[in-house]
């Protein structure tokens, strides 16, 4: 998506450790017009897939997920990140390992909002190692709903998540694919 790549070039900054900071429009300040366009793109890509619900993980996945739900006219559910204590009966729970922080976190979704007849689109802001997506796929297995595909705003194609999702035969649509962040420079796959 050209508009997104241009925005990353203009307002993204590359931090050490192959991290792209996009706090100016996605992860802290949020640009609603850009998010609307992102939602429009995902809605186009999945228009013929009979999506019944969208799921994401709080917090940064919510903006693009909502904008997609707005345009597919389906509800959006965000998995919560919190340490579960004892009341797990009515929750689907999955473990998400953060490589960046070297911690394990649980994500949870209430059983109330997903059924085995749902056809779900997973949306997230970043795809790096894929842990968030794999957590949501674990919940899909528990709840027995179908996953029609995964929509990612920014894929770091040089990290393993994207390939791992595709290896499972799951449809992956990433709006910006980053080939490299070496030497403080953003290089997109599309630049080839
Ligand atoms: P992953 O396996 O889910 O792909 O992510 P990973 O554990 O590698 O990274 C942990 C967190 O860092 C995730 O957000 C992920 O989206 C985010 N992340 C990974 N690479 C980048 C990057 O280059 N730039 C930015 N800005 N974020 C990155 P989180 O902390 O779980 O979510 P949230 O609370 O921000 O939504
Ligand atoms: Na995220
Ligand atoms: Na994030």
TrEMBL record:
Broad enzyme group: transferase
Reaction(s) catalysed (UniProt annotation): XMP + diphosphate = xanthine + 5-phospho-alpha-D-ribose 1-diphosphate
Binding site for 5-phospho-alpha-D-ribose 1-diphosphate: 128-132
SUPFAM superfamilies reported for this sequence: PRTase-like (SSF53271)
EC code: 2.4.2.22
Taxonomy, superkingdom: Bacteria
Pathway(s) where this gene product acts: Purine metabolism; XMP biosynthesis via salvage pathway; XMP from xanthine: step 1/1
One Gene Ontology term of the molecular function aspect: xanthine phosphoribosyltransferase activity
The keyword Cytoplasm is annotated on this UniProt entry: yes
GO biological process: purine ribonucleoside salvage; xanthine metabolic process; XMP salvage
Keyword Cytoplasm: yes
InterPro entries documented for this protein: PRTase-like (IPR029057), PRTase_dom (IPR000836), Pur/Pyrimidine_PRTase (IPR050118), Xanthine_PRibTrfase (IPR010079)
Compartmental location: Cytoplasm
Subunit structure: Homodimer.
Function: Converts the preformed base xanthine, a product of nucleic acid breakdown, to xanthosine 5'-monophosphate (XMP), so it can be reused for RNA or DNA synthesis.
Family of the protein in this entry: Belongs to the purine/pyrimidine phosphoribosyltransferase family. Xpt subfamily.
Name of the protein this chain belongs to: Xanthine phosphoribosyltransferase
């Amino acid at each position: 998506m050209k508009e997104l790549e241009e925005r990353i070039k203009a307002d993204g900054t590359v931090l050490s450790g192959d991290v792209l900071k996009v706090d100016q429009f996605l992860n802290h300040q949020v640009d609603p017009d850009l998010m609307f366009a992102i939602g429009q793109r995902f809605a186009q890509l999945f228009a013929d897939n009979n999506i019944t619900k969208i799921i994401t993980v709080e917090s940064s996945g919510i903006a693009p997920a909502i904008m997609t739900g707005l345009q597919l006219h389906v509800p959006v559910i965000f998995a919560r990140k919190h340490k579960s204590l004892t009341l797990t009966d009515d929750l689907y729970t999955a473990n998400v390992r953060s490589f960046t922080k070297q911690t394990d976190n649980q994500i949870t979704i209430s059983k109330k909002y997903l059924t085995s007849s749902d056809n779900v689109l997973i949306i997230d802001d970043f795809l790096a190692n894929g842990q968030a997506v794999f957590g949501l796929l674990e919940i899909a297995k528990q709840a027995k709903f179908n996953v029609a595909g995964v929509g990612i705003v920014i894929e770091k194609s040089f990290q393993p998540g994207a390939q791992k999702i595709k290896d499972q035969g799951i449809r992956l649509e990433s709006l910006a694919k980053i080939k490299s962040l070496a030497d403080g420079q953003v290089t997109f796959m599309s630049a080839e």
